[in-house]
Amino acid sequence: QVQLVESGGGLVQPGGSLRLSCAASGSIGSINGMGWYRQAPGKERELVASITSDGRTTNLADSVKGRFSISRDNAKNTVYLQMNSLKPEDTALYYCNADIRQRYSSIYDNLWGQGTQVTVSS
Fold this sequence. Notes:
By secondary structure, this protein is mainly β. 0% of the residues lie in helices and 57% in strands. The chain has strands spanning 3-7, 10-12, 18-25, 28-39, 46-51, 58-60, 68-73, 78-83, 92-102, 108-112, 116-120.
């Protein structure tokens, strides 16, 4: 069974930085696109950033452009979200998402992590 496990969330002051990590583990054949979503209380889940399988193309939500960046280490099956200049409105539960093909399978499953809380407050 393949799973995604996020880490790196926490409480940070406005203007601070955090780096989220999401590692895929299990019987992995290959990983296609990966991304980060977030959901604040009372709001819908929104895409924050995504990255292609080769890491060459990234996409960032307008609200985080210039402050956040996404990267991945395919050798470690891990995707990162570097968050700088954090604002209170960035407070949310951040979820990792990935399209993963399990070993000996021919299809990609869209999987979610359990989420990691990011709170920006003074």
